[in-house]
Amino acid sequence: MRTWFFLGLEETSWSEKILFFVTMAAILALGVIGVFSPSLLSATLTGAKAWVLTYFGWWFILLGFVLLIIVFVFIFSRYGRLRIGGPNAEPEFGLFSWLSMVFTVGFGASILIWGVAEPISIVQSPPPKPSPVPGASVESLALAFMFIHEVFPGLAMWYLPVAMAFGIIVYTHGVDEYKISSMLTGIVDEDRIPGLYWLVDLRRSSRPSGISTTLGFSAQTMAAILSRVFHLEATLLTYAVFALIGVVFLGDVWLGLRQGIRNAARATMVFIVASMALLVVVGPTLYMFELGLDATGVWLSEMLRLSLYTTPGSESNWAANWTGFWWAWWAAWSIFVGSFVARVSKGRTLREMFAVLVVAPTFLTWIQHSLIGGWVLAPGYQGPVSEAMAAAGKPAAIAKALQITPLGTVLAVLFVFVIAGYIVTSLDSAVFMISAITLGNENPNPRNRAWWGALLAFFGMVSLELEEFSAIESLSVTMALPFSLFLLVILYGSYAIISEHGRDIDAYDSEHRTLITRDSNSDSAATDDD
Predict the structure, then answer these.
(1) Which are the contacts of 38, defined by CB distance < 8 A and separation ≥ 6?
(2) Under a CB-based contact definition with an 8 Å cutoff, are residues 166 and 183 in contact?
(3) What pLDDT is recorded for position 64?
(4) Which domain of life does this protein belong to (predicted)?
(5) CA angle at residue 15 from 13 to 20, to 5 degrees?
(6) Radius of gyration of the chain (CA)
């Protein structure tokens, strides 16, 4: 019994204990391979990613488009008024806290890392001719693709379907089991296929690839900034910084969702605003504003064209390596971000969730990417940053941009705080949901969450030993392929459930119209008496 208490498993069934140990063993084994044979792990992951994108890049592009249509049908139909948790549910968090948690958890340090790396990479290797947007400069086209991938429609395609499905089925419909398999309710009868739900939970919870790769990105970027900007012993200091982050994380674990994750998210938002404000002051301001507006015109006018761009017949596989990669990346993250967003959105309608997960972040990420993209693509910056990335990889690019920027050391300090904040909030939320899903409890105990946090942090630190930055991103892409079909399945299940609750919406509308009519008649009667 002491062992189960120590692991936070004292009130779990044997199937849940097995799920915990199998998942732990799988992640630990992958981490151990990374420690003792990083070259083998790098080669394996990179090869798997190349195979997935070459043969299934088109599938992710198509699936993203289909999901976007389905999401809009849900949100802008009468079902968009459905409230997570039932018609009488009250919001648990205020607007700023809610937005902070959703934003910092859902997008992570990739805004900084890829905000520099993708525009530079596309300028160096633009789409094959003929250009998808004739007449647009390569810089504007590069930034427009960045908007497609990390602003819109990317924001609406992947997280929202899972958030809607989890919120509708687990909270509104009131399914007892707080598990990923619960989203199969309304589709498959567990009694007819025994063990199916347990198998789904095993496959889902054994794939925390999104948070692992984000920790990897963050670790290598932080190491590059500390080494190149501050001339410090990067690896050793990065381990020390991660140790400090671990202490903060354990404190957050003990404080829980309201005081821990919420406050870390709010602090991160403050650092984001401060860093972007300083960048406007010290960066190539005029060029950032002009390029941002020009790229916005390309993005908005050619959104459909760029979203479905596939370079048919081209040997470069350019679109699959960019759009296909991004959609697979989003898909790998969707299960954790979507379920977490559903958890913190109780008491909100589907349309409100759409606003805080899509509309508001679209505006925020558009501003960030306009500033960051304009910064590194500006004359005097683009050349040195491109050379640094070609010589030493993506983390070196952001470090070089900081080195050649006035007050770059101050900006670098803010960036380190932003990355640290993203690590804490992403790790907090991912661990919260992994533990919740494994235990089947929406408020998992801190002991179990601490074990998950330690394991995922270990896997993230292993990435410092990997030979290629691309090996880190490969894990998410590879694991997203089998998960992609599950997204369509759970959306179908959501529709089956939401159709039942549509009658509640109709009843509410009917009652509301009756009350309005009654009040109007009362007012008229009062007027006649006067």
Answers:
(1) 462, 465, 466, 467
(2) yes
(3) 92
(4) Archaea
(5) 95
(6) 24
Mean pLDDT by 10 residues, the chain (530 residues): 73 72 74 72 81 91 92 88 85 87 74 90 92 93 95 88 84 66 60 43 49 66 82 67 62 59 82 95 96 97 94 82 90 82 89 92 94 96 95 89 95 90 75 74 76 71 57 72 80 75 59 46 44
- Both tokens assigned to 529: 């008496």
Helix H or strand E segment including 280: helix 262-282
Phi/psi for 83 (5° steps) reads -100, 130
3-state secondary structure of 427: helix
Separation of alpha carbons 317 and 355, rounded Å: 34
Q: Is 8 exposed, middle or buried (0-12, 13-18, 19+ CB in 10 A)?
A: buried
Contact at 8 Å (CB) between 284 and 277? no
* pLDDT at 498 (0 to 100): 75
- Tokens at residue 366, please? 């558009």
- Separation between Cα atoms, residue 477 and residue 210, nearest integer Å: 9
The DSSP line for 176-245 is S--SGGGGGTTT--TTTSTTHHHHHHHHHHT--HHHHHHHHHHHHHHHHHHHHTT---HHHHHHHHHHHH
Taking every pair of Cα atoms in the chain, the longest distance, rounded to a whole number of angstroms, is 89
Please give the model's pTM, rounded to 2 decimal places: 0.83
Q: How many helices (H) and strands (E) does the chain have?
A: 23, 0
The answer to whether 151 touches 145, Cβ cutoff 8 Å, is no
CA distance 337 to 434: 11
Compute the half-sphere exposure of residue 196: CA atoms within 13 Å on the CB side of its CA: 12
pLDDT of residue 130: 86
What DSSP assignment string belongs to 477-505?
HHHHHHHHHHHHHHHHHHHHHHHHHHHHH
Phi, psi torsion values for 407, nearest 5 degrees:
55, 30
Nearest to 81 by CA among 512, 515, 506: 506
Q: Output the six-digit token pair for 401.
A: 């941009």
pLDDT of residue 303: 95
* Identity of the amino acid at 9: L
CA distance 142 to 153: 16
Q: Domain 11-502 belongs to what architecture?
A: Up-down Bundle (1.20)
d(CA 313, CA 316): 9
Contact 326/64 with Cβ under 8 angstroms?
no
Distance between CA atoms of residues 398 and 109, nearest Å: 12
Nearest-angstrom CA–CA distance, 169 and 164: 8
What is the SS3 assignment for 83? Answer: strand
Q: Which parts of 218-341 are beta strand (E)?
A: none
Give the whole-angstrom CA distance, residue 474 versus residue 206: 16
**Backbone dihedral angles phi then psi of residue 63, each to the nearest 5 degrees:** -60, -40
Q: How many residues are given for the chain? A: 530
CA angle, corner 117, sides to 126 and 106, nearest 5?
115
